[in-house]
Write a structure and sequence with these properties.
Blueprint: E1 14-19, E2 28-33, E3 40-46, E4 55-58, E5 61-66, E6 72-77, E7 84-85, E8 90-91, E9 97-103, E10 106-111, E11 116-121, E12 133-136, E13 152-157, E14 163-168, E15 173-180, E16 185-193, E17 200-205, E18 211-216, E19 221-228, E20 233-241, E21 252-258, E22 264-270, E23 274-279, E24 288-294, E25 300-305, E26 311-316, E27 321-327, E28 334-341, E29 345-350
Antiparallel strand pairs: 1-2, 1-29, 2-3, 4-5, 5-6, 6-7, 6-8, 9-10, 10-11, 11-12, 13-14, 14-15, 15-16, 17-18, 18-19, 19-20, 21-22, 22-23, 23-24, 25-26, 26-27, 27-28
């Protein structure tokens, strides 16, 4: 008699890769993941949306931004080998969306070009409805050509409460919103101002939800902040460099991830084309740069930690590849495992 003896079948891990179609990318790629080696095998791709530069996954539905002047978001059914659009792209009523997140029955997008955050309701089948709210930022920063106005770069739900964080590169700040899920609105709650000219891009939360690590793009640093989930308050504590002292090459940090055991941070740095390894002290307030290693390609735009926390993936945009690394469990130092071609790769998510 056949069967599994009562054991549940192991769910295969899949990867989804976003890319810039305007730069030769294939759109959204789906791939199978070999959990023993980390290797990726592409199973299909779709160019149904222009420049799907960032992705988010909720079960068997994948969401992508369309990073264009007429910004949009789109849902895909990924239950099969090739992502299948669930309806047409939906306007985010903002320009150049660079990031999105799924929370409380909504997809939220950070719109870099217009400096705004949008909320789009999710239907029962996973498809997207028309934007229910757009929160528009105001302000600027001191860096000419980069901070003449607001540039929302990331939107991320915060742990331990109803809060949503929006990282704005143009205004050197992180805004806090409360998402009203019933009304589909973003209610402004507060704004944390960071160092002038730092250009905050992305943040990652400490696994305990007590701190946030804001990676800056215009200076190669990470700003450590204390996070008060009860009050929805982010308090800056200090900065740590993500490139070695004395480094002279132009460096533009892009993505940051934290280990689930609260021992390490990893940050991707473009220009330098490196992955910074930072050790966290028990308080979570004093990261220390341990070393940097090559990202395995050029212009690492995104970093992704595997669910097992034993492997790290880098999306190298300008060399057009995804490179994976095995992580030393004691030191957190990545060791290159392999790579696949992925033209104009901008992000990778696993699920």
């Amino acid at each position: 008699m056949g069967g599994t003896g009562g054991r549940q079948p192991v769910r295969a891990v899949r990867a989804f890769i976003g890319s810039f179609t305007s730069a030769g990318g294939h759109g959204v790629l789906a791939a199978d993941v070999d959990e023993a080696t980390g290797a990726l095998t592409v199973t299909g791709a779709t160019d149904a949306v222009t420049d799907p530069s960032y992705l988010a996954l909720a079960g068997t539905v994948l969401y992508a931004v369309s990073e264009t002047e007429d910004g949009a978001a789109v849902a895909f059914d990924v239950s099969g080998a090739v992502p299948r659009p669930l309806g047409d792209p939906v306007s985010v009523r903002g320009a150049g969306p660079t990031h999105l997140a799924v929370t409380s029955g909504h997809v939220l997008t950070a719109n870099y070009g217009s400096g705004s955050v949008s909320a789009l309701p999710v239907a029962a089948d996973g498809s997207l409805g028309a934007a229910s709210d757009v929160a528009r930022h105001q302000g600027s920063g001191p860096v000419a050509g980069r901070q003449s106005g607001p540039h929302a770069h990331q939107v991320l739900p915060a742990p331990g409460g109803p809060w949503v964080t929006a990282v704005d590169l143009g205004t050197d700040s992180v805004r806090i919103y409360r998402l009203d899920a019933a009304a589909g609105t973003l209610r402004p709650h507060g704004e944390t101002v960071l160092g002038a000219g730092t250009g905050p891009r992305h943040l990652a939360f400490h696994p305990a939800g007590t701190h946030a690590y804001v990676l800056n793009e215009l200076v190669p640093t990470v700003t450590v902040c204390r996070w008060d989930a009860a009050e929805g308050v982010l308090e800056p504590l200090g900065e740590t460099h993500v490139v070695p002292e004395g480094a002279t090459a132009p460096s533009y940090p892009s993505a940051i991830v934290a280990s689930p055991d609260a021992r390490h941070l990893w940050a991707a740095v473009r220009g330098d084309d490196s992955i910074a390894v930072l050790a966290l002290d028990p308080s979570g307030e004093k990261p220390t740069l341990v070393t940097t290693v090559s990202s395995g390609g050029r212009w690492p735009r995104d970093l992704t930690l595997a669910p097992t926390a034993r492997r790290l993936y880098a999306a190298n945009e300008r060399s057009g590849d995804i490179t994976w690394f095995d992580l030393d469990p004691a030191t957190g130092i990545p060791r290159r495992g392999g790579s696949i071609a992925a033209p104009a790769a901008s992000c990778l998510i696993l699920g």
